[in-house]
Design brief:
This protein is of the alpha+beta class. It is built from eleven helices and twelve strands. The chain has three domains: 115 residues, Beta-Lactamase; 113 residues; 156 residues, 2-Layer Sandwich (Heat Shock Protein 90), CATH 3.30.565. The strands form three sheets. It has a five-stranded antiparallel β-sheet with strand order 2-1-5-4-3. It has a five-stranded mixed β-sheet with strand order 7-9-10-12-11, covered by helices on one side. The protein binds adenosine-5'-triphosphate and magnesium ion (MG). The site of adenosine-5'-triphosphate (ATP) has 22 residues, from helix 10 and helix 11.
């Protein structure tokens, strides 16, 4: 037995893990070699010299009071402690406390085995702080992306403003000239009325008939009569067109500041976007719309409009002389598919994987920033949709946007 004791003792002594044996009142009566080394480490920097007598002398926080209580009651306690050391990285230990009992099952001693996990601990806290840093960086990036979306939108609106001004100028121009004609016509009509009044007041209106007749002819009243309704209708149309453009601009640029998903009609978005960029497209492309029967979808309309605009502008820019841009929509299960195609220059196969990269552009310096598709991709992703492209150089390009009818997690019917 004694032989075994001696053997066990030398085994424990040689263990790499620190092992202490403590009395019930936590005095140290045995410490193996690793434990003695730990003692040196844990008391380093303190004023104490010589071997500590009690475990609390080693470090006041080494053994939490409840650990002993737990060990007494259940026979064992396992846990982890991190001991702050003066100016050095904390000493992290996993501890195992075992209550040692005598023959009558009374607790007489405790064993305390420790394992130094400082390295893992340091790694873990480093990872945690890295993670926190990444989280912050991520938040910042998100903010930047939103700004980018906003400023790209503003930039393209800036570009479009000139086109829109032109679109508005045209109807305003003919309404303006119609107003001048209308002023002339009213003057003529008023002169004729005056002649009639004069005839009526004269006592013998019939004798004025010829004068009035001549005046009517010289003022071209017959023509005025037929031209007037046309003129008014044309002006009304012009004003209506301006109103529509302004409304579309408003629809388009409405910043959904609260970023709310609302049920919206995609066709309306496509129409107002087409209207807005009409000036860029009309000289180059015939636009063929094939709108399917689709329900409203949950989306942020101004963001989808921006996607449509970026893709439609690209389509127009891909057409050299004259071509066709197709816009079609369809329902595919619980998704809406928007397909925008052109018969322009197409995209070489080796460039296809790059076109959604931020700042990738094949357009001359100062023309494209290469953000249109990158931003569109982000916006479609935000809508839990997908955007795909197929292209044949020399034949054309087709963009397919798939959008879910409802956003995940939404409980709207
Ligand atoms: N319909 C298309 N036909 C041919 N090439 C296209 C088409 N759409 C996109 N591309 C290619 O993808 C590139 C990236 O498009 P993206 O819209 O992201 O940037 P951009 O049009 O060059 O510049 P920006 O849109 O910022 O003004 C384009 O430069 C072009 O080479
Ligand atoms: Mg573009």
């Amino acid at each position: 037995m004694n032989e075994l004791n001696a053997m066990l003792r030398s085994v424990v002594d040689a263990l790499q893990q620190p092992v202490f044996v403590l009395t019930r009142d936590l005095r140290i009566i045995y410490a193996n070699r690793a434990a003695r080394a730990l003692t040196v480490q844990a008391t380093l920097g303190s004023q104490r010299v010589g071997a500590p007598e009690r475990i609390a002398d080693l470090h006041p926080d080494l053994l939490p009071p409840f650990a002993i209580e737990m060990a007494k009651q259940t026979g064992e306690w396992n846990g982890e402690v991190a001991l702050p050391l003066n100016g050095r990285r904390p000493l992290a230990l996993t501890l195992q406390v075992i209550a040692l009992q005598d023959d009558s099952h009374g607790v007489t001693h405790f064993s305390l085995a420790a394992r130094d996990v400082s390295f893992e601990y340091a790694r873990k806290s480093e990872l945690q702080s890295r993670n926190a840093e990444l989280e912050i960086a991520n938040q910042r990036l998100k903010g930047t992306q939103e700004q980018l979306v906003q400023s790209e939108k503003l930039a393209s609106i800036g570009q479009l403003a000139a086109g829109v001004a032109h679109e508005i100028n045209n109807p305003i121009g003919y309404v303006h000239s119609n107003m001048a004609t209308l002023a002339q016509y009213s003057e003529n009509l008023l002169s004729l009325i005056k002649a009639y009044e004069h005839a009526l007041q004269s006592g013998s209106p019939a004798s004025h008939a010829q004068t009035v007749q001549q005046l009517s002819q010289s003022l071209d009243i017959d023509f005025v009569r037929s031209d007037l309704p046309q003129l008014i209708e044309e002006s009304r149309e012009g004003v209506e067109r301006v109103r529509k453009i302004v409304q579309d601009l408003k629809d388009f640029s409405r910043s959904d500041a609260q970023d709310q998903f609302v049920k919206s009609d995609i066709h309306r978005g496509l129409d107002s976007t087409l209207n807005i960029i009409w000036n860029d497209l009309k000289y180059k492309a015939q636009v063929v719309k094939t709108f399917g029967d689709i329900p409203p979808i949950e989306c942020i309309p101004s963001e989808l409009n921006q996607v449509f605009m970026n893709i439609l502008l690209n389509a127009g820019q891909a057409i050299r002389e004259r071509g066709i841009v197709t816009v079609s929509t369809s329902l595919d299960g619980d998704h809406v598919v928007v397909a925008i195609g052109d018969d322009g220059v197409g995209i070489p196969e080796e460039l296809l994987p790059k076109i959604f990269d931020p700042f990738f552009t094949t357009k001359p310096v100062g023309t494209g920033t290469g953000l249109g598709l990158a931003i569109s991709y982000g916006l479609i992703k935000k809508h839990h949709g997908t955007i795909d492209v197929t292209s044949t150089p020399g034949e054309g390009t087709l963009f397919l946007i798939r959008l879910p009818l409802r956003q995940p997690g939404s409980n709207k019917a």
